[in-house]
Amino acid sequence: MYKLLLKSAQQQIPLEMIYESKHGNISKRVIYVKKISSTHMYAYCLTKKQYRSFLIDQILAIQPTNKQRKPTA
Question: Is residue 40 included in any domain, yes or no?
Answer without folding.
Answer: yes
